[in-house]
């Protein structure tokens, strides 16, 4: 297990709204009732109702549960809670039988309505609602669990391996995967992460993964974390191998003899006198973090920045790059900012060359406190304001965003992208860490053009790539930064030409290099 704790001094400040995490699950009985309607794969879609318009707007979706009787959705909904407002929610359940993201192609399985206040006010923050919407059918029930999120913004990177797990498959060994849960005050557990499945082995080594510490334990380092070990089965009836409990504080100690956990199966332990354990889980690696400043190697953010920057800076004549951070408390008063200059100078956000950007980035890590929510739209709008002042073809703006995949203002970001598509600018997004990047894929718009309130972006201006695709098997060495730069920059020329053509801007006569259109880059 690798885990890292960010050393940031807490700064007192008022949070704009209480951030609530809502988890969706259902009892095994209810899930059987839902799946009996031929719901081999199901997801839940959350809609929120506008206070003034009363219109329902899609807020987010869970991941798809693939034919399983372990009906806990890992993907959460993060909502701002306002005590003085009635925040109406609608949860629709669908059977997913196609790869399309279009809800109209899914089979409707039922829905339920409640308010955010109802979930929070329920005993233990746990509300169970029956599904309705299909006359004459028993549709089961959905369980909602709410918890107020702490201000902890630490990111943990973990990796685990196991040894001598129980053999579960008749014709093979086992196909193990791990499920992480954090404990609740009422003694129940809330799912917070699933690893990938490692096929046909009793000694698996799972890939490193990152998880916000507040998702794992809500910032309480001594809070119990339970880990279940399962053998994956195609039909969804995964076999329980065993479990162990620990805490994030123990995880964060890294590799040592105390971080070898016995995987115990209570049923086996009760039946077999000579039962010892069903295997062990331990740590194959050393602590690290996405933002960790290793004195011997650049972190993923820095490597991605340098790889792309070294190429694209050649197209900027003055080599001055405005560089911004988003999602942090700034000294001296702890003010929250979603678009702060890494240079620390509000009047001059420019950094000299890519080396100057890197220097400002590392200096910023030492002075700010990483803090949520993580909003993309302010930075996009910041660059858009610069781009809208120069639409004659003399300048083109490229915004490079490097992120761990967490995005808190998806609707506002979609609106910002749609508006920016009419301006001389492109957006490159590089996702670092092994998190899910569904939101980034949606912004990329290669399959379905980004839209907001029925308006589609007139151009595809976003290019997204996951950084992990450019790393070797060990997970910490860059395989080919040249290939990364090539892939993220591949669409820029076509996007630039597309803007010029739609605006009727003709190529100018042959000019000297200094007279060519300037490719302004923001980071």
Give a concise summary.
GO terms for molecular function: calcium-dependent phospholipid binding; metal ion binding. Residues 4-131, 138-261 form the C2 domain. It is built from twelve helices and 31 strands.
Structural overview:
The radius of gyration is 25 Å and the shape is globular. Strands 2, 3, 4, 6 and 7 form a five-stranded antiparallel sheet that branches. The chain has a four-stranded antiparallel sheet with strand order 5-1-9-8. Helix 6 (300-312) runs antiparallel to helix 7, helix 6 packs across helix 11 (481-489) and helix 8 (377-387) packs parallel to helix 9 (410-420). The chain has 523 residues and is an alpha+beta fold. Residues 1-16, 285-289 and 474-478 have low confidence and may be disordered. 20% of the residues lie in helices and 30% in strands. The two termini are 32 Å apart.
**Mean pLDDT, all residues:** 82
Helix content: 10-25%
Radius of gyration: 25 Å
Shape: globular
Q: How many beta-strand elements?
A: 31
The fraction of residues in strands falls at: 25-35%
Low-confidence stretches: 1-16, 285-289, 474-478
What is the first-to-last residue Cα distance?
32 Å
* DSSP helical segment count: 12
Summarize the main sheet: 5 strands, antiparallel
Helix and strand content put the structural class at: alpha+beta
GO molecular function: calcium-dependent phospholipid binding; metal ion binding
Family: Belongs to the copine family.
Domain C2: 4-131, 138-261
Protein name: C2 domain-containing protein
Structural topology:
Blueprint: E1 18-25, H1 28-35, E2 41-49, E3 56-61, E4 65-66, E5 77-81, E6 88-95, E7 107-115, H2 116-121, E8 126-130, E9 141-148, E10 155-158, E11 161-163, E12 176-183, E13 189-194, E14 209-212, H3 213-217, E15 224-231, E16 239-247, H4 248-251, E17 261-262, H5 266-271, E18 280-282, H6 300-312, E19 320-322, E20 324-325, E21 328-330, E22 335-337, E23 340-341, E24 350-352, H7 353-367, E25 369-370, H8 377-387, E26 395-403, H9 410-420, E27 425-431, H10 438-444, E28 451-452, E29 455-456, E30 462-466, H11 481-489, H12 492-502, E31 518-522
Parallel strand pairs: 26-27, 26-31, 27-30
Antiparallel strand pairs: 1-5, 1-9, 2-3, 2-4, 2-6, 6-7, 8-9, 10-14, 11-18, 12-13, 12-15, 15-16, 17-18, 19-24, 20-23, 21-22, 21-25, 28-29
